[in-house]
Amino acid sequence: MANASRFQFIKSQHVPTLTVLQAAIEDFSYDRHAHDEYAFGVTLAGRQDFFSGGQFHRSPPGNVILFNPEEVHDGQPGGERALDYLMVYTHPEQVKPLFADALGREHSADFRSNQTLIQDVQLRDAILELARLVTSQAGSCIDQENALYRVIERTVQLGGIAQPNQLISRPDALLGLAKEYIHAHLETDMSLDDICQAAHLSKYHFLRLFRQYYGITPHQYVINCRINAARSALERGASLNEVALRFGFADLSHFNRRFKRIYGMTPHQYQCDIARSPSELKNRT
């Protein structure tokens, strides 16, 4: 039986790090994972069921879904109808100046929305317009940048927290050390003991604290980070075998399975999507 789910990734021709996912899902469920980017989504048809922030959510058509960077979530169709939705991804560094302007601060700390499931027509329409400009290759660079700013501005208006770097709790600081170590050693055969030592925590306390804070195990986090790093390498044109070996996957088959559980397609399919123009993607069947 052919896979009834479809996924298409389209990168902006103008704005770095800006990517749109168009997805239609009937028979697919995402593993729990997190992205480095902000993710702004709209449920178009069906119902989107997902876990995030310690809660289970149901998103009917017209609802907005917003994930902060590194916010763990999963996802699957809910109800009897197929799920149709889109997501817009953008890296925090890309939008930090936009958040600063929307907050009225020259130097803004990292902004985190305090809502995951949002009913707001203005934000929904802003996301849809940004996605339209990217997928149809319409407008100039400044048109897409302005559309992205509208999304950021409305997100700030709906509420959130601009986190000052100096106000970090001790658990956050220790887990931050662990995450820094993981990101610095994605291409090496790191052990749990290595990560615990970097965090200055016993294995018992580290495991409990990590899962409590992030909703996934350290092993799941390491795999997730490697997949995200592999995705970036694929976008730069690296070969599949090179990427699989660089980031610690036993072989291409292992890499394929892990990648597909997070992105809905194989690494080869993703690399082909990114290389295609929006007009070519529209003609795909």
What structural class is derived from the secondary structure elements? Answer: alpha+beta
- CATH level-1 class of the largest domain: Mainly Beta
Largest beta-sheet details: 6 strands, antiparallel
Molecular shape: globular
Secondary-structure element pattern, one letter each: EEEEEEEEEHEEHHEHHHHHHHH
Overall average residue pLDDT: 90
Tell me the strand order in the biggest sheet: 1-2-9-4-7-11
- Strand % is 15-25%
CATH topology of the largest domain: Jelly Rolls
How many H/I helical runs? Answer: 11
> Radius of gyration from the CA trace?
19 Å
- Considering DSSP H and I runs of 4 or more, what fraction of the residues is helical? 40-55%
Q: Which second-level CATH architecture of the largest domain applies?
A: Sandwich
List how many beta strands DSSP finds: 12
- Tally of structural domains: 2
Low-confidence stretches: none
GO molecular function, one term: DNA-binding transcription factor activity
Pfam families: AraC_binding (PF02311), HTH_18 (PF12833)
Protein name: AraC family transcriptional regulator
Keywords: Activator, DNA-binding, Transcription, Transcription regulation
How are the secondary structure elements laid out?
Elements: E1 6-11, E2 19-25, E3 30-33, E4 38-45, E5 47-52, E6 55-59, E7 64-67, E8 73-78, E9 83-90, H1 92-103, E10 110-113, E11 117-118, H2 121-135, H3 141-157, E12 160-163, H4 170-184, H5 192-199, H6 203-214, H7 218-235, H8 240-246, H9 252-263, H10 267-275, H11 278-282
Antiparallel strand pairs: 1-2, 2-9, 3-8, 4-7, 4-9, 5-6, 5-8, 7-11, 10-12
